[in-house]
Target: 10 kDa heat shock protein, mitochondrial
Amino acid sequence: KKFIPLLDRVLIKRAEAITKTAGGIVIPEKAQSKVVHGEVIAVGPGSRKDNGEFIPILVKVGDKVLLPEYGGTKVSLDNDEKEYHLFREADILAKIE
Model:
């Protein structure tokens, strides 16, 4: 199956949280910082202007992006255990190069 977001929505796979230090110490869940970056997995066609013309999305599949600490709609994809979120393009804070 292929997941295709509608309009200006972008599907993001959040990066994994760091759960263990380099020395092997396990970090408790409450002490872990919220992951605020991820990778673009799928993008919609863009939003529409009043005249019906599409405004293209500025990020593309594979881009690394900076996300707000809270927000996005959690999405499950075919028994995949990774954490995916659906964001509107305007909610993405920056592209990381």
Summary: Residues 9-96 form a domain with the 10 Kd Chaperonin, Protein Cpn10; Chain O fold (CATH 2.30.33.40).
